[in-house]
Amino acid sequence: MNLLDESIVPEHARAVKQEAREFAVEQIEPVAETYYESGEYPWEVLEAGMSANLVAQDIAEEYGGRGFDLQQTLAIYEELYRADASIALTLQLASFGADIVYTHGTTEQAETYVRPVADHEQITGLAVSEPDSGSDLAGMNTTAEKDDDEWVLNGEKYWVGNAVEADWLTLYAKTGGGDTRYDDYSVFILPTDIPGYTAEHIPEKMAYRASKQGHITLDQCRIPESHLVGDVGDGFEIITEFFNHGRVDVAGHGLGLAAAAIEEASRFVHHREAWDQPISDFQAVRHDLAEMRMELASARSLAWRAAKHVIADNNPGYWAALAKTTATEAAVNCAESAMQLHGGRSVLKENKISRIYRDVRVPVIYEGANNIQRDLIYNQADWPWPWIELSSLLSGSNGYHRIRQKLTILWWHHIHPANCQCKGRISLDVSQSYYFLLLSVSRISRRIEFHWEDCQSVRPPLWCIQWHTNTHPSIYVHTFLIIDNSVHAHERLYNRILTLSAYQYHIHRWRRSYPIQCAAFSA
Predict the structure, then answer these.
(1) Is 111 annotated in the active site?
(2) CB atoms < 10 A from the CB of 428, how many?
């Protein structure tokens, strides 16, 4: 039974998939239960993975890695996580975050820190989450303050892979001074041997026991200014882009775990007998197995499709969230069904299914809990753009302006670059000469400030609307913008745009101007 066959895998990723499968069978499966029981760090397996060139090989070839792309890492992870999730995560985390340094940092940074990881001389990790904040990337409190030619770090990080074992970490910290909360964060290289850095393992976990996460405390840690990765204020964008790729890899975690659950269930029901026949002969059991195969096949098809879209930078956040959520929840459902089919034996620690059942609870949480992923999926989906009647829009204008000339109507519905919350009436101070009216479909709970900003026009009489907002990313806009299209008004408004006072979030990369789809017609 080959649940993770290569028929769906691109040709260039098949060889490394086979390497990963052979390694998993030879090096991971025989010791998985032992490491689960002991909870020890699997140094021997990690070293074997390094020798097999399966660790840190997503690093670019110019810095010593094999340059694996997203499809190759997905092929690796679905095989490794089928064997054992906690050991597989240990192998993955050995270079976690290193690509941020060589993608956004300098050549000198990559040579100094990334190359030793690719050469298996060092291991690293990524420090983002904190004791009191996880999903809200713009809500972290660890600070980095500039002091002459150094950065001074203070705060705590939690759930940091290799916090104790790593030689250095990629750190996400608040530098402040940005126009919005999303501009307040930056990324740094953090050596773990500097004064003020302390780390301890998180107390014993019920799952992923062979993978070690830690709690970090930073107390007046000083690093040189050259340890800044990218520019000040780019951290939110850098980490968001990183997770778009990482969530497709997490889909691979779910696929491997789902396949393992199905294998365990199949092995049990085809050998277990009741009423003088294998229980696999019962229709209800067969239906359960069929449902499990359906979930895995659907999730796997989506994951591999998502990998193509993320590589092509085609709405990557949307596809990554789809793949991660679907695959990790397929793993949960398959493990639940497999436990039920095992009956009372499912709770025995000697049975692999009990370990799988615990492990599947983890990927639905890390790299963005699936509740958050559902927000991202809705916010970044391509929804239809319906038309409205001009008469219904103009009724009840409440005297903001008398509309006398020919109008161009721009309407947007659930625009989501950061989805400002609109629940109440917009408070807007508009010069009479601009002849425009802003109406809200619903009530507004917070004030939104607008200003005019120079920008190239798309094509008169439509204007490019560049969305920047500092409101929460799970909220939506229901607004109508009416701009006077008379000759004189057009002369005043040509090459101008309406801008919200903050930065774009999630859908497109920051600091670009995008024309939005809209309904436009004249009265």
Answers:
(1) no
(2) 14
